[in-house]
Predict the structure.
Amino acid sequence: MIDPHTGEGFDAPAPDAAYAGAPAIVREISNVLALTTSLHRCDRTADGREREQRLRKAALLDRIALFEATEYAPGVAAEAIATAATAARKLAAYDTEHHTSTGPIGPNSPEWDPCHRPYVRQEYATWVRLHADT
């Protein structure tokens, strides 16, 4: 069985593993907002901040969707889940266009069918590993 929400059936880290040690959701909202603001003041792609902003935003929205799906009725959580899926698809499109994927499975792989949310988890877990010492 394939479940983009739990990650079951995908060759990507489960949500708990991908987001272990991630900042609290409210803190990460602040971090993503700061990155977004800084992008409007400089060259958007020169230092990788646009990709980082897109990745962290997609991961944040995925985490919010995961939370809402466990706390609320499906109809209430549906909007958060759809928003997370859209952000994941946009990150995959960006990575495809700019060749910026860092995980072992590329953004165009059939692995991510029907949803790129597990792709976000793969990329976030890889990003955390690459930036652990910075």
Summary: The CA atoms of residues 45 and 134 lie 20 Å apart. The chain has one domain: 18-130.
